[in-house]
Sequence to fold (256 residues):
Amino acid sequence: MIDIHNHILPALDDGPDTLKKSLEMARIAVDDGIKLIVATPHSNNGVYKTTPDKILIEVEQFNQALENEGIPLKVLPGSDVHINYNLLEDIKNQKIMTVNNNNRYITLELPSFGLPQNLSDFIWKLKLSGITPIFSHPERNETIQEDINMLYDFIMQGALSQITAMSLTGEFGKKAEKCAVSLLKHNLSHVIATDAHSVRRRPPVLSRALTAAKKIIGADYALQMVTDIPSKIIKGEQLTVPEPVKEKNKFFNVLR
Fold:
């Protein structure tokens, strides 16, 4: 399996603070069947300003540490980018890391509450520049939890979305789980990733979520969400994904 959202690099953000912990996360990932990880330290969020140069150096050093420890895992560069409207210029000026540094896909972190203004216009600008945004953990956004059609419109524009493995297994709460299931049923998510930050509280485990997804959308497409689709994203290839389906009752996901 391939995990394209993982905060595995040591001492860069709110992930592991030591190399020892990062290596333990790597062992957990390999034991779970993960062979390839895109390291996605937080970037551009006002707290962490991890530069592409720093990410590339840390990825190279971590891959060397994995080799030294005999851990059969490869790590590629990426970032988990806070949305702002100078982002396109920052990408052009190589201030922001795209997925595998390919300038074709970028992981954009949605906030927990609300959605950025003029996001639709921003998606069009990215797409016109040849860059496809991948929205991370939309199922954990309260606005989308209340109305998945908010995400539908963005997907119709050509954006992609990635749900968190632990949301599907209920470990981010009932609202996130219910929304994640609905996103899968309506073809509004395209990748499952761990968003791992630690060894215990948020470990790099995909297999349990894969099992859950198979029951919702079938084994073939569920497996693609952790293999073929992330592989094409990493390579910068064009994707063909199922047509999104609009939810008829926009208040389907409000829990009382």
Remarks:
- The longest helix spans residues 52-69.
- Confidence is low (pLDDT under 50) at residues 251-256.
- The chain has eleven helices and nine strands.
- The beta strands are 2-6, 36-39, 42-43, 74-77, 80-82, 105-109, 132-136, 160-164, 191-193.
